[in-house]
Amino acid sequence: QVQVVESGGGLVQAGGSLRLSCAASGLTTSSINGIDWYRQAPGSRREFVARISSGGVTNYADSVKGRFTISRDNVKNTVYLQMNDLKPEDTAVYYCNIDLGRLAYWGQGTQVTVSS
Q1: What one-character-per-residue DSSP string does 72-107 give?
Q2: Which of 36, 56, 92, 115 could form a disulfide with 41 if both were Cys (CB 3.0 to 4.6 A apart)?
Q3: Is the pLDDT of residue 79 over 90?
């Protein structure tokens, strides 16, 4: 059974940092095409934040470039999202998505709140 669990969210002041984790279990690393972070603010659509491919290539939304860094630990099957210089507009529920090609698995999300 595949499980995807995000953690690391919380309340932080503007300019602060958080590191989110996405732990996946029940699947093999070789089956993963890529792992994405998305976020959804209240009243807004879910939007792409960052991606790390199976080959280690990273992509970021323009709104987070230079502030967020996605990385992975293949041994732990965990992906991290280091978020620096957080802004109030980064407030959202952050979701991890495991891309297996024909299938995708989502976690339950972790809340990030940035106060001004």
Answers
A1: EETTTTEEEEEE-S--GGG-EEEEEEEE-SS-EEE-
A2: 92
A3: yes
